[in-house]
Write a structure and sequence with these properties.
The structure holds 2 protein chains of 2 kinds. Chain A is built from 2 helices and no strands. Chain A has helices at residues 8-34, 38-49. Chain B is an alpha+beta fold. Chain B has a domain at 18-134: Beta Polymerase, domain 2. The radius of gyration of chain B is 17 Å and the shape is globular. The chains are: A mainly alpha, B alpha+beta. At the A-B interface, α1 and α2 of A face α5 and α8 of B.
Chain lengths: 50, 199
């Protein structure tokens, strides 16, 4: 099977961009968490973790 | 774990589905009607029994025109919602077309969520075209080839990623295409990490 050409500089740039997007998403989640009743956010957390 | 591994697919029967599995399968059932996709990164290891969870599931979808995206969006919005924006045009123009991923969760929930992106680089396109079929109970989904997933996890390099890579390798090593695996390790410069942590 032929593998694609990999440009490591391009990949590194993408990795950094993805990380930045994830950081921004954490901010969004915290904003949501702050205005969401404990019962609601903790139920979602419980369902994910249990 | 009982499984069947062939060139074309991996089959696992009698898996008790987790809430995360059900969430992913519910979303995939909608997604697959509209566009080709591949699941990448953390959920691949979780799907095969790794004991950890994830608040997001990464999926690469084929580039799609606005009309197709519109149909997908309307279908998805019956049970899910976009966390970035509720504006369809904005989601398409300001996110997907700008190579920024968009996230979907079940309505009124935030986690878990599906993170969707279109191919940015050749590697993404290859992953999509060479995706591996997985049959879990009676459901079908497509994942990134493990011969790429393992080196890519090493490339990402966090402890969690390295553990995932080792888990997948130990579980499937007798079935993996060694030449392909070595080729990706070479291209991603993960040979040393592979020798140190995986083999």
């Amino acid at each position: 099977m032929k593998t694609p050409k990999i440009d490591l500089k391009e990949l590194e740039k993408m990795k950094k961009e993805n990380f930045q997007q994830r950081l921004e998403f954490i901010d969004k989640y915290v904003e949501w968490l702050k205005k969401t009743p404990n019962k609601k956010w903790s139920k979602q957390q419980k369902e994910l973790i249990d | 774990m009982d499984y069947k591994y062939t060139k074309d697919c991996i089959v696992i029967k009698d898996k008790t589905l987790s809430k995360l599995d059900e969430f992913v399968l519910d979303f995939i059932r909608i997604l697959e009607k509209h566009v080709k996709y591949v699941i990448v990164s953390g959920y691949v290891a979780i799907l095969f029994g790794r004991n950890r969870t994830s608040e997001d599931v990464d999926i690469i979808i084929q580039k799609l025109d606005f009309n197709t995206f519109n149909r997908l969006w309307l279908d998805v919005y019956k049970n899910f919602e976009c966390l970035n924006t509720h504006d369809l045009k904005k989601a398409y123009n300001d996110y997907l077309l700008e190579n920024i991923s968009i996230r979907f969760s079940r309505k009124g929930e935030f986690i878990p969520n599906i993170e969707i992106k279109v191919p940015k680089i050749e590697l993404d396109k290859w992953t999509l075209s060479e995706s591996k079929k997985v049959i879990i109970n009676d459901s079908t989904l497509f994942i990134s080839p493990l011969e790429l997933e393992i080196p890519y996890k090493l490339y990402l390099g966090s402890e969690k990623d390295i553990e995932d890579a080792r888990y997948l390798y130990k579980l499937f090593k007798k079935y993996l295409d060694t030449k392909l695996l070595n080729d990706f390790n070479k291209k991603l410069k993960t040979n040393k990490l592979f020798i140190r942590y995986i083999q």
